[in-house]
């Protein structure tokens, strides 16, 4: 049996523990939802206030040059680049993950169409994040391509063939925390003549990502999850240098023009990844994102992403062990992989107890009961038709999650299940955001 004392000993031994001080975390809160919205870095409020009062308030329009606002998409991109295994100048920060996916998937489809018009299929997972599937579906309406959804990760290689244009995956699946083998799947895609588009929403800043070494073609990622950039933070996109200048992306705006301030009536795409920009960067949000990315870079002298990954696995392993030791007999099932190499930075539990849960569902009610006890995880609705169970998700963020937090979270989960308090009506009201 693992005791709370054991968890405290792990914290005392943890080289990354001092990084928690970089964040403002409410007292007594166990926050296991950094995979949905990362916590606030202490530096952010001061930095954003400075940009507002000085750069904007005093500098006004002159700050585009004087404060370097124009360069923010590349400058922050260069800070994210080493976190995902690509070179400086290859990645830009812009727009949202959904919009960036639209841009890179369009570009990948255009490259494939030019090479072989018979390649019209985008292969993905049925359990991929819905926005990714919606974007692919809507591109399909425009370009006449179709979406082929695979139910089990093992079936992905067999789904690739002469009609496949693109393999589009989220590296760590949002529902089940499964970490795909990017190198193996990229190789399988290339062997079948397909290109790969990777969504790094749950992997950038959470697991070491090696886009270049693993043979990826295009990637997008999210700024407000493990990069701690704040709600709705700008996202990023990357195209392999061999592709970046080969196609137009469909949202050709003036910031992607080779000479934005020439104000020419005709579009000339900038070389490289800069053409993936569209309009004016959101400077305030960029300032917040940069503070978030800096918190990850602060881990560099302490071992960087390798140390973050090692601690993440230790945290999720502790979570799994404790659930097994302490929460038996209530019908919880692990929905995330038990094998370390296949698990991202979250533990997912399926829970669908009897109908006494009411309309909102048992898993939803358990998450609400935990939130009332100051343990924040989240709930993701399943879909019986597609065989997807309701899920409780618990994300760990090694920059600020402590081993004792994991112990406390599982203890609260145990109490919620043992007392049956999740069945109370007050835990069955669904809000807009789950
Ligand atoms: C969080 C997430 C997104 C978010 O997209 P937005 O455009 O920021 O709303 C997209 N894809 C995946 C896989 C995600 O996990």
Automatic annotation (TrEMBL):
Keywords: Hydrolase, Pyridine nucleotide biosynthesis, Pyridoxal phosphate. It is an enzyme of class 3 (hydrolase). Belongs to the kynureninase family. GO terms for cellular component: cytoplasm. The modification N6-(pyridoxal phosphate)lysine is found at residue 225. Its EC number is 3.7.1.3. Coiled coil: none annotated. Its cofactor is pyridoxal 5'-phosphate. Homodimer. Pfam families: KYNU_C (PF22580). Pyridoxal 5'-phosphate binds at residues 97-98, 129-132, 170, 199, 202, 224, 254, 280. This is Kynureninase. It comes from the Bacteria. NCBIfam families: kynureninase (TIGR01814). GO terms for molecular function: kynureninase activity; pyridoxal phosphate binding. Pathway: Amino-acid degradation; L-kynurenine degradation; L-alanine and anthranilate from L-kynurenine: step 1/1; Cofactor biosynthesis; NAD(+) biosynthesis; quinolinate from L-kynurenine: step 2/3. One of its GO terms (biological process) is NAD+ biosynthetic process. Catalyzes the cleavage of L-kynurenine (L-Kyn) and L-3-hydroxykynurenine (L-3OHKyn) into anthranilic acid (AA) and 3-hydroxyanthranilic acid (3-OHAA), respectively. It catalyses: L-kynurenine + H2O = anthranilate + L-alanine + H(+); 3-hydroxy-L-kynurenine + H2O = 3-hydroxyanthranilate + L-alanine + H(+).
